[in-house]
Amino acid sequence: DEILEIINLAVSIKAELKSGQKKTYMDRQTLGMIFEKSSTRTRVSFEIAERRLGGDSISIAAQGSSTSKGESLVDTLNTLAAMRPHAVVMRHAASGAPQFVSRHLKLPIVNAGDGTHEHPTQALLDARTILDHRPTLTGLRVAIIGDIAHSRVARSNIHLLSKFGAD
């Protein structure tokens, strides 16, 4: 139900933006972003989405953060949390890092990719893209090509698509 709610909201927002109706979904809200693992497409996609939805973002890159000097991830995120963002988007090289951090911070944590574990936001995007061309995911046969054993995107796609009856 939550996945469908997110996908349907994305369709609605896309239609509103395309028609010129500028609705502010994130009025004056700030998204904290910490990318301990390099990313261009994912990081920039979140930054653009935040701006288009009427919010702002604070970005911390691994090279510029105190973790590069030995500070713990929790301490770095506590510093970010002190700036009072409404949520944190996180990409990390360690599998399970967003789940670990969510136990230490009282902020919503969005997993933008963790190690070889998951990339749920990419799976949501992939499902939405398929639904732009097909009426349903049910009964769809999907081939994922590449290094599946080490692909967080493949793992997240398999998890999400199978929930909707895709093979």
Which bin fits the share of residues in helices? Answer: 40-55%
> Beta-sheet strand percentage?
5-15%
Uncertain segments: none
N-end to C-end Cα span: 19 Å
Q: SSE order in H/E notation?
A: HEHEHEHEHH
Main sheet: strand order: 2-1-3-4
Taking the sheet with the most strands, its summary is: 4 strands, parallel
Kindly state the number of beta strands. 4
Counting helices, strands and paired strands, the structural category is alpha/beta
Question: How many H/I helices?
Answer: 6
Rounded to an integer in angstroms, the radius of gyration calculated over CA atoms is: 17 Å
| Arithmetic mean pLDDT | 89
Query: Can you tell me the overall shape?
Result: globular
Q: Can you give keywords for this protein?
A:
4 strands, 6 helices, alpha/beta, 167 residues
Detail the topology: elements first, then pairings.
Blueprint lengths: L1 H18 L10 E6 L5 H12 L3 E6 L11 H10 L4 E6 L4 H6 L6 E6 L5 H12 L20 H12 L4
Parallel strand pairs: 1-2, 1-3, 3-4
Helix pairs in contact: 1-5, 5-6
What would you say this structure looks like, in words?
With about 170 residues, the protein is α/β, with parallel strands linked by helices. The chain is built from six helices and four strands, in the order αβαβαβαβαα. Strands 2-1-3-4 form a four-stranded parallel beta sheet, with helices on both faces. Helix 2 (about 40-50) links the parallel strand 1 and strand 2 (about 55-60). The two termini are about 20 Å apart. The model has no long low-confidence stretch (mean pLDDT about 90).
